[in-house]
Amino acid sequence: MQLYSHWKKQQLPDDLLNELHSISEDAKLIEDRFYQYVSFGTGGMRGLLGAGTNRINIYTIRRVSEGLARFIESNGEEAKKRGVVIAYDTRHFSQEFAVETARVLGVHGITSYVYRESRPTPQLSFSVRELNAYAGVVITASHNPKQYNGFKVYGEDGAQLVPSAAKAIVDYMEEIEDLFEIETLDGQELESEGLLQWILEELDARYLQHLLTLKENAEIDLAMRIVYSPLHGSGLVPVREGLQQFGFNNVHLVEEQAVQDGEFPTVSYPNPEEPAAFKLAMELGEQVGADLLLATDPDADRLGVAVREGEGYELLTGNQLGALLLHYILQTKLNNGTMPTNGAMIKTIVTSELGAKIATHYTIETINTLTGFKYIAEKIEEYEQTGEYAYLFGYEESYGYLIKTFARDKDAVQVALKVAEMAAFYAKKGKSLLAVLNELFKEYGYHQEALVSQVFEGKDGQEKMQAILSHYRENSPTSIAGLPVVRIEDYLTSKAFLADGSTKEIQLPKENVLKFVLENNSWIAIRPSGTEPKCKYYFGVVADSNEAAELLLADLKSAFL
């Protein structure tokens, strides 16, 4: 209540002040806005737009920017000189928050290289490396609904922050006693002192140049009809230009969704994982006879794909597309004679095991990481330093993929181009992606996966999520849907408990995740989301037929939820 009163006394923008006055009689709504600061971690911070310490607004943006500035200062003058690259998506206030970040950094003598227009998160990652900047910031809430925004920080390697750096920034943020006293420079001062450098065309050209190195197969049908939707987001320019430069001459843009608008007016949820996000793309696909539909989320780090099936279209899951891409990339390298002897693919612990089986077939190592692309990027950097493995592909079930390492985060632009090449390659052979997927199932088993999310808003919600995980730790099931549990992996304690009573160490960082592995290689994992107020339940099964896999998946979900 003290914070609430303090905020009401400030000269706030009208929308924030009106919001605070509107909740004056509701203690619960006041508590939700002020019981904490928006949490910041290796994935940055993400939250609802609005007034209060637990909302995204110019004041909480200043606070995290000040923490970042002090962190950079602590690393010396060279770090300050190298500066920070700042990009942003098309959400409400994204450009404003980007400039606000530069205004705070400028007080500390840190130069900001700010994109003049919205550009994808992976292009920001690339730009940090390309400009040899010390850090990067992207203002985005990825695929969240329109009410959200966020602030992600990248290190000098172009990857999301490692835990030690994130903790250091949080420590500096916690030193700030009053976020209304954080100093800023105005735009004119920034530009006159050279502390704000606008970037766009040159970095666009350099990113495109690297994207074109993905083209590895000349035997493709360039006349294949493709529909692309940026879902009102920042993927519009690089994906459209990339497809054109790849040589595809029959690409149709969903014009209504090419309008960059933070209201996301044609979708309720700008997430290419959701079938509803493909409604307009499917309608256009029917009109033009398209074989392939592509959609990127607002910051173009996730890609959704739908392919023609009979009279309609079928969406591929993130796991299915990852398996198809892995198989295609490895087979192409084998055919071209470019397969390394120490190749590795990296996936997360909640991603399908189909990819691991494909990798084994090609004598490629599979490396498992915790959920979050920062862990995949960390491994890429490690292997570049040690030479232990040659990175070939990385992916996670939530529609995030990375092929080439000029970016160090999931890159939907890269993958849109590679998926188009892959589909066009098989089209020339008279095959659809679904036909190829079925071949993989026949060879490696019919794999099916599901994700169920339960939403827990507010302070009470966080406590309920923790209680769910505690319940399963204290009351671990010995069987699920009649199938014995043969292994329980507790990533918070870094221990795996086997059915015979023995334990094994898990060689991964600690995280609040539980995974139950069953007798028939099915599995269930539970984890609280790091970016949304959700508890996520992951299910994976494998069977001898698609029908058997569907039944087994339904049984597991019914028994566990």
Précis, in short:
With 561 residues, the chain is α/β, with parallel strands linked by helices.
How would you characterize this protein structure?
With 561 residues, the chain is an alpha/beta fold. Helices cover 40% and strands 22% of the residues. The protein has 19 helices and 23 strands. Strands 16, 17, 18, 19, 20, 21, 22 and 23 form an 8-stranded antiparallel sheet that branches. A 6-stranded mixed sheet has the order 1-5-4-2-3-6, with helices on both faces. Strands 8-7-9-10-11 form a 5-stranded mixed sheet, sandwiched between helices. Helix 4 packs parallel to helix 6, helix 7 crosses helix 10 and helix 11 runs parallel beside helix 16.
Properties at a glance:
561 residues, alpha/beta, eight-stranded antiparallel sheet, six-stranded mixed sheet
Number of beta strands: 23
Residue fraction in strands: 15-25%
Structural class: alpha/beta
Low-confidence stretches: none
Shape: globular
How would the blueprint of this fold be written?
Elements: H1 2-8, H2 14-22, H3 27-34, E1 45-48, H4 58-74, H5 77-82, E2 84-88, H6 94-107, E3 112-115, H7 121-130, E4 135-139, E5 148-154, H8 163-174, H9 187-192, E6 196-199, H10 201-211, E7 226-229, H11 236-246, E8 251-253, H12 279-288, E9 292-296, E10 303-309, E11 312-315, H13 318-336, E12 343-348, H14 354-361, E13 365-369, H15 373-386, E14 390-396, E15 400-402, H16 412-428, H17 433-444, E16 446-455, H18 458-474, E17 479-480, E18 483-490, E19 495-498, E20 503-505, E21 514-518, E22 523-528, E23 534-543, H19 546-560
Parallel strand pairs: 2-3, 2-4, 3-6, 7-8, 7-9, 12-13, 12-14
Antiparallel strand pairs: 1-5, 4-5, 9-10, 10-11, 14-15, 16-23, 17-18, 18-19, 18-21, 19-20, 21-22, 22-23
Helix pairs in contact: 4-6, 4-8, 7-10, 11-16, 13-14
